[in-house]
Amino acid sequence: MTKYEKLFEPVTFSNGVKAQNRFMLAPMCDDSAENGQVTEQQLEYMKTRAANVGIAVTGYAYVNDSGDQVPGQLSVAHDKDINGLAKLATVMKAGGAKAILQLSHAGCGAGGSVAKGYRVYAPSKLSFPWLDYDVDEMTTADIEQVIRDYAQATKRAIAAGFDGIEIHNCNHDLLQQFFSASANHRNDEWGGSREKRMALPLAIQRAVKKVIAESGNANFILGWRISPQEKHGDEIGYDVDDMFAQTKKVAELGIDYLNISLNLSADYSNSVRPSYDVKVKGTDKSFPEYYRAALRGYCPIYIGSNVLTADDALAAVTDAEGVYVGRELLMDPDFVQKIAEDRPEEIVNTTTIEKLKAVGLPDGFVDNYADKDGSTRVVSYRNGIPLPGLD
Ligand SMILES: Cc1cc2nc3c(=O)[nH]c(=O)nc-3n(C[C@H](O)[C@H](O)[C@H](O)COP(=O)(O)O)c2cc1C
């Protein structure tokens, strides 16, 4: 019995399926797929990172060819992707973790699609200064197609043997763009009021739930990831109350866990303090305490960000059922094992490019996230440098 015993209790999802402990490998795109296909390097990496967690989530996989954010991202847009994804699911499950495929569409941020010559679209015609390509306003037919694409992607995840999917309703992807008053200027059934701006995420949820129900696999897990708030200086895309309202609707339809991404906004992130410790603005409640009221009945909540030590992880599960761990697991693949064996002082939480290569990080991670000066941007929160591309 160690001080960290609580981290090794199972987490029960809403559908009754259990994760073997409270750790989640946070979804992290490793920029290392080849034309969307899983590579050997990714399989090797996943084998070690998923080995000891309760639930392992892949980096975001694009559901159609217009939704690819970065070169090296995984694809779940075609049937030909299933074979590679099946290998990925197999290595992710080898140590007992539940293997989850994260589904996404980058909307206006689909730079990877631009590079391949695909059309890029978003709820409205957007021309942000940082976009050097045209973004079309989606037609009704585009919207209906995207909903079908999420359904198809879910079928592929099931065929590949994943234990579940997680919908990437966060980090500025297409679903968030629809919910954001800054990005969505439509006046039809898909935009305008808050209710209408949440219509696309909810339609996608309905579509993927239908596929899951029709598969007959009652154990298939539906996870849902949110960014609680979107702000651009003084301009508000949506506020915490808006996302709370959306989550209430989502919970009514039914999800198996809620993953609250806490790294993104100035109001609740902090470059030195673990983000889980931050209260929802204007309240004395932590994010899990606050969000619990939005959930219908029992649904486990995962939080995290800036979790570097065993004590950070333990503190996160005072309010939440589970804790996601991203960059720390990049640096130290044995993070969970060391806590399980009561060796927390052996956890590695500084790194260098050489060390990252030595712990089997795929090239894309090292090339795009490691600071060329010697330390690395994967530990940037200690140095106050924001994560690239994540707001
Ligand atoms: C290299 C990298 C890639 C990421 N890719 C994704 C992604 O594909 N989907 C997602 O939801 N979050 C993504 N994130 C965010 C992480 O899931 C996590 O929220 C963030 O890294 C903060 O947690 P940490 O401090 O434990 O790393 C990414 C983060 C990093 C560092």
TrEMBL record:
A Pfam cross-reference name: Oxidored_FMN
Protein name per UniProt: NADH-dependent oxidoreductase
PANTHER family given in the database record: BINDING OXIDOREDUCTASE, PUTATIVE (AFU_ORTHOLOGUE AFUA_2G08260)-RELATED
Top-level taxonomy: Bacteria, Bacillati, Bacillota, Bacilli, Lactobacillales
NADH:flavin oxidoreductase/NADH oxidase N-terminal domain: residues covered: 6-345
InterPro entries: Aldolase_TIM, NADH_flavin_oxidoreductase, OxRdtase_FMN_N
Keywords carried by this UniProt record: Flavoprotein, Oxidoreductase
